[in-house]
Amino acid sequence: MAKYALRLFAGIYLLFLLALPVGLVFWRTFGSGIGPVIGSLSSPEAVHALKVTILVALWAVAINTVFGVGMAILLVRRQFPGKRLLNAVIDLPLAVSPVVVGLALILVYGRYAPVGGWLEGHGIQIIFSMPGMIMATVFVSLPLVVRAVEPVLVEMGDEQEQAAHTLGASGSQTFRRITIPGIRAALAYGVVLCLARALGEYGAIAVVSGRLVGQTQTLTLFVDERFQNFQEQDAFAAATALALIAIITLLLIKLLHPKDRA
Amino acid sequence: MSTETAKATGLAADTPPPNARPDAPESPPSRALRSASLLAGNRGTGLGLGVSMVFLSVIVFIPLAAVVWRSGSEGPDTFWRAVHSPDAWATLKLTVGASVIVALINLVMGTLIAWVLVRDSFPGRSVVDVLIDLPFALPTIVAGLVLLSLYGPTSPLGVDIAYSRIAVVVALLFVTLPFVVRTVQPVLLELDRDMEQAAASLGAGPLVTFRRIILPNILPAMLSGTALAFSRAIAEFGATVLISGNLPFQTQVASVYIFGQIETDNPTGAAAVATVLLAVALLVVVILDLIQRWGARHG
Amino acid sequence: MAIEVQNVTKTFGTTPVLRDVSIDVASGSLTALLGPSGGGKSTLLRVIAGLEDPDSGSVTINGIDATGLAPQRRNVGFVFQHYAAFKHMTVHDNVAFGLKIRKRPKAEISRRVEELLKLVHIEQFADRYPAQLSGGQRQRMALARALAVEPEVLLLDEPFGALDAQVRKELRAWLRRLHDEVHVTTVFVTHDQEEAIEVADEIVVLADGIVEQTGSPQEIYDNPDNPFVMHFLGPVTEIDGRLLRPHDIELSATPRPNSTSATVTRIVRLGFEVRVEMSLEGSHTWAQITRSAADHLDLATGDTVHVRPAANARLLPAGAR
């Protein structure tokens, strides 16, 4: 029966590509019990890597949320020449390889680059430092909040905002009291997407951070570095932590997915 | 363009499910759109637009332009040499070749999986459905580690494909898994079953029905998902870094090559190959757009 | 005059939606902007509210030139066809919104909201959300919300358009009673002539961006200026190349001065009225007579009957438009 054949094919493919590999990592990690895992994750480098990851991610999410909402409103509620260009630029980050993102930033903000050199002359270091990492993370997660909020702004329509105007509310009052509450759910959704992306970034950060252990090392870089140094227990522990975060994110996203809400 | 490319390459690279993006429902009464210009308040729009353009220029536009500029900054000959040097050329061939293979596999398997998820029902289906997005949510380096543990030297299955081209393909298959599935799924869900029933009543068997009724309707989605998977594959870095061994001329993909060039202080060479990748990505985006328009015309 | 609109023109893209429109709305009146869809009525209303800017012309509200003013500053209440309820706020907070923006003291807001909710009979829903209300209740909430800030002018854009026929009828009557109580200058847009005739003091017939006629419901019905208005406001029939109301036709069994003979083709009994369809000198026409008149005439299909306009009938030459 065709149905069972299809199920078999799909099942085998997914088993060997997805389920077994992921399952194995969990298995390997907790193979000697939970103690060593906690040990690995509480080493000073691991803790520091986690802090760096969270700090960079939070900054990137904050920046992308503010600009994301702003650009979504511009795209949906306003008319202006060059809208198509703006749309295209917002989508650009999606087509770019993470390593190229890193390269791009170095070429402009690196120590020997025009803008970077000038900034460094004034004591501001971008590349191999937090600002660069934040920029790289903002770059790769740029479209997420914008595209999450956009359809909801369209669906909401601007009648509620018009009503608020007729009742005397100014632009900012309307924004605060009507627009933001209206896009609340989609905004939460976009923020979660953005956060997950930011926490998991590897390629761009690898280029832009200089991978300085104990300074600019994120958790993803930690996994890489530990593995390359044959400290597999540590690498696996951190990888599992990241995988757990990924799964939690998946569940959160399923929960927050606007289409499935009442 | 946005909803599709959003699911594209980049969105992927270390991230959560783009399919999750809510589809834009119908627009509100046109009247509301007409009055948008009034609510715009010219001042607000101008300021917002200016700030946005500055933000986007600083973060996206200027850096990317710098890459293209730098690749040509030492003259077209240097560009050509950088791209045509034996290892660069080998890496580009491998990257594009592997990505094409991966895209084609996804075309078939992705559609198959979408079909099973939509048309079949079995215990645990919703769990499988959620897990399809795992490659999106998982950091790529973790994906690499995950594949290496199962298919590398320490494999419990005794399968060791590490440091081979097959490893590159497997890594790319992992990260591109959700693309075709997530573009085809919604189309299958919306498909009007009446058409299939009409075909059956006219004497068509299941295979014929699939070929003549279902396939034409899901083809645009299949193709756009495949294009997205391809874009993602050529850009992939983290998943291939561990399992492929990055052996030049054999298993080194373009992004790893670029990384190497950056580390060894050859930004121009890096930029040249990067520009080629960007051009290929741009081409794919254009093709995607054309596919969507063609699909839209055929309703 | 509460509202004076002078020579307003508005074009969307290449489509002219309002063409040199001028109207006057008397203070305290209840005026209907009546016309077919796409005729410009909603646009005119929105121009008055400040939600659209006219290309040329002016709007004066209670003596003040409002043409350049933002909607916030015009002190007009606006009720939308689809309610534009603030979905994330309770009914109470919706109605209180305008007052909160004006920073009124809490006690005053509380009192006023309660008063208004009672006025529109939804006080029991104060803590519910708009999604939990029926369409009619939501529209009443929208009205209460608009009235809360004591606007000088109340504008309603097809307020009952999204509701069922039954609810529509109830709310129509209710709007009239509300207006009699509250006396705010009110303008509402509708494409339903029955609604306009039943509710309004004054009707402005607007079609294709032009004012066709203004006047009281009775005036417009009895004395339409042109065939378009005549057709729009009620049933129309034709005799001798002239248009008149079907109930303005007199039928008799025997010839009378000015009568023409016709042959009955069909008789339809509709409740207490009877519709008599006839062929008359090669064309078709119809008359509406009462049941008693029909019984008196005792007509059957094929009979000859004599037809003439009633003495006080309004006649219009049939022609273009």
Note down, in words, how this protein is organized.
The complex is a heterotrimer of chains A (262), B (299) and C (321). Chain A has 262 residues and is mainly alpha-helical. Chain A has a single domain (42-260), classed as MetI-like (MetI-like fold, Orthogonal Bundle), CATH 1.10.3720. Chain A contains twelve helices and no strands. Chain A starts with a helix and ends in a 6-residue tail after the last helix. The model of chain A has no long low-confidence stretch (mean pLDDT 91). Chain B is globular. Chain B folds into two domains: 27-72; 75-298, MetI-like (MetI-like fold). Chain C is of the alpha+beta class. In chain C, strand 9 and strand 10 (210-215) form a beta hairpin. In chain C, helix 2 (91-101) runs parallel beside helix 4 (135-148). The two termini of chain C are 31 Å apart. Chains A and B meet through helix 1, helix 3, helix 4, helix 5 and helix 7 of A and helix 1, helix 2, helix 4, helix 5 and helix 7 of B.
Low-confidence stretches of chain A: none
Let me know the number of strands of chain A.
0
The count of strands of chain C amounts to 18
Stretches with pLDDT under 50, minimum 5 residues of chain C: none
Strand content of chain A: under 5%
What Rg of chain C do the Cα atoms give? 24 Å
Sheet with the most strands, sense and barrel status of chain A: none
Measured as a percent range, the helix fraction of chain C is: 25-40%
Give the oligomer, counting copies of the same chain as homo and different chains as hetero.
heterotrimer
Q: What structural class is derived from the secondary structure elements of chain A?
A: mainly alpha
Q: How many structural units, i.e. domains of chain A?
A: 1
Helix-strand makeup class of chain C:
alpha+beta
Q: What is the helix/strand order of chain C?
A: EEEHEEEHHHEHEHEEHHEEEEEEHEE
CATH superfamily of chain A: MetI-like
The CATH architecture name of chain A reads: Orthogonal Bundle
